[in-house]
C-alpha cells in the first residue's frame, strides 16, 4: 500500500501553523545555548532504523494471539508495510529478514520492490531456535553448541545459507541469536558448550564474504530455565573478539537482568570497538519486547548519551552501529506501535545531542555529581518533538505519523485489501 503524498500534505497542512510556532520557539531557545537546530535536524534525517519482517504482525504470548486484521501474509506485503512506515516517518529505511520465515522466491523482484519504496536490506537473521518441517535433525538440545557434530553442522549450514540470501539482496551483516542452553543443573558442560559454539561460529565467520559483519547477540535467560550459552555481553564480546575484526556484540535492550546498567555496557563495548548494533524495545520484568521508551525513557536517553559520546569521539574505532526495532505488539496495531517506537528512539537521540559535553566533562573532573545530573536532565527534559517533526516535514513525511495513519484509515484499507483474519508469517 502506498499513501498518496498529496493526502499526507493535506493532513500536514492542518497542523502546520502550530508546528511552525513550536519549532521557531525551540530554535530560538536552542540558539541562545549556541545549539544549531538545523544541524540536529540534518542528523535526524540521516538516522534510519531497520524494521524486522517479523514485527509487522500481531505478536502474542504462549496463552494466545489476537490478530487485528490486515496483517502481511507474504514478504511482498511486509516490504509494502515497511515502505508505508518509511513514507510516514522517513526513519524506517531498511528491512531485516528472518530466514526461513521470509525466504525470497524471486530475489530480483524483491530487490526491485524494496527499491521502489526506497528501502535497503539490513542484517539477515538465522533461526536455529525452532525445528522446521523439513529439518533432518532437531535443535531440542541446542544447535551451534550441540554435542552431536551433525546437528552443529546443520546449524552452520543454515547460517551460511542465510548469508547467501542476504548477499543476493545486498545485505552486509548476519545476526546470530541462539536459544542454546540448559534447563537443569548438570545437563550441560558449560566449557564444552561454549567451545563448541565458538568453533561453530568460526566456521560461519570463515564462510561469510570478506566485507560482511557478524553480530553476536546475548540473552541471560529463556527459553531454557537454567543457563544460556551466550548469557551476557561479556560472553558475547569474548566470542566476537576471538572471531575477528568483523565480529561484534549486539545489544538487545530486553536481554538483561533487572536493573542492569545497559548504558555502561554500551560505553565499554564502544571503547573497545566491539559494539555492532542494537535491537530496540522496552521491558518491565524480562524480555517483554514492548514499545520502545514506553517504560524506561530516561534509560533510553542515558543509553543514547553514551552512543552519541562514542560516535562523536574522534579517537573511537567503533563502527557506526546498526539500529533495529525488535518488539512484539500484542495489543496495539503493529504499525502504530512501530511508529511510536521510531519516535521514541529519535527523541532520545535528539536529546542526547543536546547534552553540553564540555560542561559535563568539567563537572566530572571536578567531582560534581549534582551539576552532572543537572546537565543531563536539562537535555532530557527538553521537548525535542518539533525537531523530529521538522526533519520529517523536510523529508516529505508526516508531521504526526500516527495521527496521519489514523486520519487516512490505513488499517481499514489494509483489512479491505488483505482480509480481517490474516495472520502474519513468522512469530
Question: What would you say this structure looks like, in words?
Answer:
By secondary structure, the protein is of the alpha/beta class. It has one domain: TIM Barrel (Alpha-Beta Barrel), CATH 3.20.20.150. The chain has 15 helices and eleven strands. Strands 4-5-7-9-10-11 form a six-stranded parallel sheet. A three-stranded parallel sheet has the order 1-2-3, covered by helices on one side. A two-stranded antiparallel ribbon has the order 6-8. Helix 9 crosses helix 10 and helix 11 runs antiparallel to helix 12. The radius of gyration is 22 Å and the shape is globular. The mean pLDDT is 96. It holds the Pfam family AP_endonuc_2. InterPro entries: L-rhamnose_isomerase, Xyl_isomerase-like_sf, Xyl_isomerase-like_TIM-brl. Keywords: Isomerase, Manganese, Metal-binding. This is Sugar isomerase.
Write the layout of secondary structure elements.
Elements: H1 5-31, H2 37-46, E1 50-52, H3 75-89, E2 94-96, H4 107-116, E3 120-121, E4 124-125, H5 149-169, E5 173-176, E6 181-182, H6 190-207, E7 213-217, E8 227-228, H7 233-243, E9 247-252, H8 262-271, E10 275-280, H9 297-311, E11 322-325, H10 334-353, H11 357-365, H12 369-380, H13 385-395, H14 401-407, H15 410-418
Parallel strand pairs: 1-2, 2-3, 4-5, 5-7, 7-9, 9-10, 10-11
Antiparallel strand pairs: 6-8
Helix pairs in contact: 1-13, 2-13, 3-10, 5-6, 8-9, 9-10, 11-12
Organism: Echinicola arenosa
Domain Xylose isomerase-like TIM barrel: 104-289
Protein name: Sugar isomerase
Amino acid at each position: 500500500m502506498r499513501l498518496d503524498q498529496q493526502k499526507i500534505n493535506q493532513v500536514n497542512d492542518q497542523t502546520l501553523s502550530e508546528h511552525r510556532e513550536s519549532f521557531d520557539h525551540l530554535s530560538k531557545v536552542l540558539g541562545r545555548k549556541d545549539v544549531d537546530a538545523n544541524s540536529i535536524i540534518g542528523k535526524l534525517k540521516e538516522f534510519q532504523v531497520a524494521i524486522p519482517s517479523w514485527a509487522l504482525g500481531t505478536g502474542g504470548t504462549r496463552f494466545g494471539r489476537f490478530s487485528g486484521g490486515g496483517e502481511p501474509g507474504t514478504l511482498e506485503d511486509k516490504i509494502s508495510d515497511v515502505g508505508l512506515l518509511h513514507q510516514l516517518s522517513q526513519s524506517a529505511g531498511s528491512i531485516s529478514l528472518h530466514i526461513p520465515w521470509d525466504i525470497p522466491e524471486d530475489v530480483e523482484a524483491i530487490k526491485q520492490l524494496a527499491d521502489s519504496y526506497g528501502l535497503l536490506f539490513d542484517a539477515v537473521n538465522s533461526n536455529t531456535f525452532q525445528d522446521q518441517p523439513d529439518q533432518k535433525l532437531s535443535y531440542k538440545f541446542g544447535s551451534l553448541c550441540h554435542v552431536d557434530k551433525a546437528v552443529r553442522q546443520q546449524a552452520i549450514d543454515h547460517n551460511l545459507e542465510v548469508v547467501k540470501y542476504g548477499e543476493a539482496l545486498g545485505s552486509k551483516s548476519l545476526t546470530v541469536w541462539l536459544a542454546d542452553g540448559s534447563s537443569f543443573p548438570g545437563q550441560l558442560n558449560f566449557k564444552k558448550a561454549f567451545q563448541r559454539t565458538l568453533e561453530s561460529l568460526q566456521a560461519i565467520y570463515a564462510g561469510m564474504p570478506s566485507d560482511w559483519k557478524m553480530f553476536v547477540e546475548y540473552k541471560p535467560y529463556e527459553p531454557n530455565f537454567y543457563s544460556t550459552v551466550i548469557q551476557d555481553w561479556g560472553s558475547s564480546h569474548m566470542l566476537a573478539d576471538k572471531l575477528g575484526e568483523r565480529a561484534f556484540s549486539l545489544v538487545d535492550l530486553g536481554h538483561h537482568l533487572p536493573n542492569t546498567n545497559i548504558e555502561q555496557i554500551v560505553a565499554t563495548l564502544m571503547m573497545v570497538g566491539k559494539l555492532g548494533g542494537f535491537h530496540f524495545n522496552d521491558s518491565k520484568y524480562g524480555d517483554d519486547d514492548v514499545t520502545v521508551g514506553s517504560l524506561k525513557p530516561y534509560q533510553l536517553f542515558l543509553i543514547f548519551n553514551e552512543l552519541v559520546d562514542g560516535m562523536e569521539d574522534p579517537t573511537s574505532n567503533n563502527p557506526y552501529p546498526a539500529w533495529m526495532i525488535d518488539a512484539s505488539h500484542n495489543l496495539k496495531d503493529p504499525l502504530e506501535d512501530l511508529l511510536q517506537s521510531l519516535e521514541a528512539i529519535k527523541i532520545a537521540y535528539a536529546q542526547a545531542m543536546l547534552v553540553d559535553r564540555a560542561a559535563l566533562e568539567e563537572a566530572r573532573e571536578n567531582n560534581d555529581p549534582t551539576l552532572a545530573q543537572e546537565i543531563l536532565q536539562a537535555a532530557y527534559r527538553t521537548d525535542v518533538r518539533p525537531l523530529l517533526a521538522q526533519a520529517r516535514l523536510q523529508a516529505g513525511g508526516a508531521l504526526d505519523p500516527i495521527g496521519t495513519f489514523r486520519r487516512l484509515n490505513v488499517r481499514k484499507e489494509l483489512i479491505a485489501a488483505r482480509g480481517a483474519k490474516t495472520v502474519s508469517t513468522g512469530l
